[in-house]
Write a structure and sequence with these properties.
Largest sheet: none
Number of strands: 0
Shape: elongated
Oligomer: single chain
Strand content: under 5%
Number of helices: 3
């Protein structure tokens, strides 16, 4: 059984011909826009449900091990700054030389 597509008939159906049919064009445009919007909404809802239920998107991999020393070093710097700020407000006394 051989199936062939008659491209001339298809192109004739899609062509304007003698009469312009803007209603058909607008309907087609709106139908495609509604279809794409529905697909996007469905995809986003599925994605939201998957992430909310604790799933992951893409291939699951083992958590990467990394060196925490730089993070601890930065946290130490901020702790020192916090302590120094507290010293400025509580320990250090400044005398105004203009008085």
């Amino acid at each position: 059984m051989k199936t062939s597509i008659d491209t001339k008939k298809l192109l004739k159906h899609l062509s304007y011909g003698e009469h312009i049919r803007p209603q058909r064009d607008w309907f087609t445009l709106l139908a495609v826009a509604v279809f794409l919007s529905t697909c996007s909404l469905g995809w986003n809802l599925w994605l939201l449900h998957t992430v909310e239920s604790g799933g992951t998107i893409g291939a699951e991999t083992a958590p990467a091990r990394f060196d925490t020393a730089p993070i601890q070093s930065v946290q130490g710097v901020f702790e020192e700054r916090k302590n120094e700020e507290l010293r400025f407000t509580r320990e250090y006394r400044f005398v105004d030389p203009s008085r």
